[in-house]
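Readers of this paper often ask what the protein records in our data store actually look like. Such a record has a labelled line for the sequence and another for the backbone structure tokens. Nothing more is needed to write down the fold, since each code stands for a local backbone conformation. The record that follows is passed on verbatim for readers who wish to inspect the format.
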Amino acid sequence: MDAATPVLDIFRQKLIGTYWVFGPHWGEAKTNELAFGADGRIENYSHPNERSWAVNGGRLEIFDEAGALMWFGAGRYVENNVFCISLKTPRDASAAFVLKEFRPRMAAVPAPVPPVKTGALAPADFLFPKDLEVTPAKLSRVLLIGSCMTALYHQEFQRIAPETAFDYIVFNYAGALPTPPEPLPNYDLQYVQLPLRSVLTDHVVWATRFNDPGFSEDLLNTGRDVIDAMLDSALAFNASDGLLTFVSNFIVPQMSVVTNLTARYSKLDIAHIVRQLNDYLANALLKYRNVFLADVNGIAESIGKQYVLDDMINFYAHNGAFFSEWVGYERPDRIEAIPPMAEFYTSKRAEFSAAVYRQIIATYRIWRQMDQVKAVIFDLDHTLWRGQMAEHYREGEDWPETGGWPMGIWEAIHHLRARGILVSICSKNDEEMVRRDWDNVVRPEFVALDDFVSVKINWKTKAENILEICGELNIKPKSVVFVDDNPVERAAVRAAIPEIRVIGANPYLTRRILLWAPETQIMHLTSESAAREEMVRGQIVREEERKTLSRDEFLQSLNCAISFVTVTGNAQPEFNRVVELANKTNQFNTTGKRWTAQEIMQFAAMGDILAFRVTDRFTDYGLVGVLFCAGGRIVQFVMSCRVLGMDIELFAVSHAVTLLRAKRPGIVLADLLETADNSPCRDVFLRAGFAAAADGLFALPAAEVPATPAHVRLL
């Protein structure tokens, strides 16, 4: 009895410490996540026949929900290096099931918790700032597809986001994917991880082959072909249902893997080959729609691959995370005991997994254009430079250092502009002095006053100036970030404009927040986004001229022209701009509905998506409006506020009515639902000649012709 007890304990720990494939000997497995809980319950698999377990007399027994014996272990064996337990049931002598060891269950042996540094940013928050987040991104269900690294994600993500359901499909080779546990429309997105081992193949293990002429070239070419094949398989659900997909890249080995020093970074270096495969993967994804790269290698590099990647233990192509619990799996009869792994290798897999999940959320927020920032307004002193211009930049005195964060902010301003985000200045200061001394203070001359689309330097309250800037830019304060070092000013602006986002307390955080937060990043750089600054400058000049003319004189002077295009699919260059308008327009948005790219494609198949461009003598505004029309009805109308006040919206409605009646003569209906922001468009259908027919519904009788402004011409 005493001699057998250690053996039984080892078997019991083996059961508890492993996730098992469970199913019939011949046929599809029921699950690959069955777990034996230490409390005697079956975990991760729910069925009335398998509820609890025990080891009796060295035999595994599994019981049903009534406590009756359902399965018992009939034998143990190893098949293809996998430990297996054959199962029989007393209820049917012909039934044969099996348990196959799948992977270590790390939750069974808790990892040591690394010490938390007070005040230090976690990698997830460092890389993907939450400072500008207003609306939480709520994922209901996510599909994970990949190899053993994805198994880690599956385990960790469930811990990180227990409110989200995660389903996992094992994917090691190109081939048809099994049907997911839930219908595809129930998933918010899928996350795909291609196994590097399958891409590189096990040929890389025998390093002497790199001495053979042509071996590395063949390896790289084969890897590219495998990536193509695996993407076609792994993205089947994207191809069939347009499921939003993130594909992770490969973690590059920590060291150059070469046979000699001169071969570093050459075609003979495995690390270099993996970098090339990452480049190829990024380009390969461009041919797919609604598929985006997840830069896991970048996360590992930021945290430190020393704390994540297992290539100091495992073979290079494994491309997985290491586990501190591995030492616990060594046999007790080893001559010399191995110390806890934390004494020589510290694992940060929890921080790594949290950062990978946060990258998913951040990318999802960008895709959804959630809480998007349209403008950033900067204070000057202690915000764009160290110190005060009037006090600390005098002739004959030592001026503050400009290196570090000021230069970083100056460059950040240009990156924001490149994304189509407008930048402005709001400062309590002497404007004449600022304009005179700007080039002396901002050295090197990375940024100029002319780079800011609106400049308010005066002694008015900052809230007043900010509201004026918002008016000039036709932007709601909720789409604006104000950067100021003064806590009193920040509090005053928040009190006067509650919806604005305010930062700036710590200048060492500002650049990272402005550039890395998902709220300042865009899905696609459309021509309209790239030209936004120029358009707004023209708009400001236009509004100044408006003040000097009567309304009729002003409209007649504009020389407005409008052109229409019907968007039928995502291959058209206008498609991305339609998605952008549908998801970023708040004020002139007749229903407030947000659209995914897939939903827009589905609508195009059954209705008309009528997009239009506008020009006047001041500027070309680009594609600024979209009407979703179907079945004699204007379902939704969204338009950029840059062309408000020019009666463009009336011309667009009139044109849509003509289009709808050409297909279906008679009454034309239009939907309008009031939102918190859409007051500028609430009277558009009444002004066009429609009458209120019901709550949220307007109608234009068959005999009525909509109002069409004469000063707008059709191109």
About this structure: The two ends are 94 Å apart (CA to CA). The CA atoms of residues 376 and 572 lie 31 Å apart.
